[in-house]
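Inputs:
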Amino acid sequence: MTTPSKIDSPTLWDSKEMQRRTARRYRQERIFRAAGLGAVAISALFLVVLLGNIISQGTGGFFQTYIETEVELPVKVLGDPRTMTPEEFANSVRRANMLGLVAKSLEETFPEVTSRSEKRALIKIFSTGVRGQLAQFVTENPNVVGTRQKLWLLASDDIDQVVKGNIDTETDEGDRRVSDRELAWLQKLEDAGRVDVKFHTTFLTSGDSRNPEMAGVWGAVVGSALTLFVTLILAFPVGVLTAIYLEEFAPQNRFTDFLEININNLAAVPSIVFGLLGLAVFIGTMHLPRSAPLVGGFTLALMTLPTIIIASRAAIKAVPPSIRDAARGLGASPMQVIFHHVLPLAMPGILTGTIIGMAQALGETAPLLMIGMVAFIVDIPSGITGAATALPVQVYLWADSPERAFAEKTSAAIMVLLFFLIMMNAVAIKLRQKFERKW
Amino acid sequence: MSAMPDQLSRMTEAMPEVTQTTRTPKMAARDVHVYYGETHAVKGVNLDLHQDEVTALIGPSGCGKSTFLRCLNRMNDTVATCRVEGSITLDGKDIYDNKIDVVQLRARVGMVFQKPNPFPKSIYENVAYGPRIHGLAETRLDLDEIVATSLEKAGLWNEVKDRLDTPGTALSGGQQQRLCIARAIAVNPEVILMDEPCSALDPIATARVEALIEELKGRYAIAIVTHSMQQAARISQKTAFFHLGNLVEMGETTQIFTTPREERTRDYITGRFG
């Protein structure tokens, strides 16, 4: 078959050798495709495991155990709403010994509990948040004073964990936080159908607390929102203007090369370094308030800027030069060329870069630790200069807390963080679609 | 040129003199040199553009004809390494003078590019953009009027009048190029520069654009760069042959294509090199 002068003879497309080559090529294609599919499957698996783990653990964080109790609400303790102004009544309710009222109702349910120490232990099945819960109920419904009311009151975190099955009741009594005596009381209440796990709005509406059953993410959500707002307001215009200048106006020389290298390097700097910079410059030198979203936003903006600049430059560079020529040829000024033609076409890419930067900023913990946004803050932040914390920092704080119940709060807070992220991405995709055009 | 007898070269210079004495040129280039960094792209070109005349610039690729054309409305300004020497005047005023506003110059000297480049906007917006940025229309009705007449002049009105709000990029290549011409004439220019406007079009679309140029001839001074000798012969009154950055020969189109004075011109138009 093979003649000495291979080049001159016609190619034998159906020879054995050719068939083997074809078979080998097909095999390689199959392996390559299988490898790609495998890679996708592995990433999907990781994602499912991660999300499944967080959701299965975190769902409980949105629910709390409540115990039904019939509470006597005497005028003697609470004050008479008919003879007082609403403010006086509210004050008097706030001063009232609510736990005493609850303890009294427990005496009726558990007549066998008589000793002082046992009574003190018994009231512990309720959360200390019951005080506020009762006070709010009475203030909002003044006509309940002087009556008996059946109320669902918040159980303590340990009882809650037992009800949710997160504490193993079979282990030795000394190894668990709930004693056999408490378990017996709980059993009696459960038998009477007075224990229920209900959706817990407090988690979504209140700030942090030392008690897991009263802790909420709203303070952190507001803190994150304010911080990101400052970041966006600062990083987006500065980033886009920098990109426009570097792409459209800056002369190509050593200085701009130097700038470009530095911007690319900044994108790779560990985020904690930006935190140190923020601490030194904004708090140390400029004396801006500590723990404030303002400083957090500034610091995260520094971190986000390189990402936005790099993405925006790429997007601006991708606009066909023919569009610029067309506008210039009609007598559009450089600014008109940019704002009428280049920016609208580059906008989808710029938005993608911005959203990547913002998502990065949303998930960032380290720089915020440096500027004091890690403090324990109960109040909902009122503005960009007030003390605040952020969602990822809240996750970090709760993950670090010893109480068992904070574990599910941590996962629940991660779910809120992910929800936030998904909403942001959804907005970005919508904006992208709005700006996207063919040419 | 050195090989030419003296008599003939004197005639080369004498010929354009005849036309120049009768009319003043719309645009005049005198001893124009263009450099890209170290590269000397255009070497001492003298060329006049007249009102109601089409001037074709022909020559092999890289001969500097497009570069020269882009100097006429200072499109080369954005190329950082580009340097222009000599003088180019529009109605007797130097366009490279510091007092000249480039934006106004480009409105007066419009340009049509090799590849149709409509904006990714509606047909209406494409044409309305120029008049709008120069404030040529007082009211919406005026603007509608300008858009309609521009599209009519470009011979596109009948094809697009029912879909002015559809994207200009959705038109066929030939329609896009006529849209670009409509866009250029909407700002009411005095000169139109065309850089190989038909090289991306099929023969039918080319014929339509050529017919359009024929129609526009009376109103504007037109300079067109083309690689098609037939096209130059069909549509132009004057032809300029560029080679290696030099303007080798310039004259009446019929004369250039029938009795070229320069050997290089003859070789090029008969297809012997290029």
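Chain A has two domains: 66-198, 218-435. Flag for discussion at group meeting.
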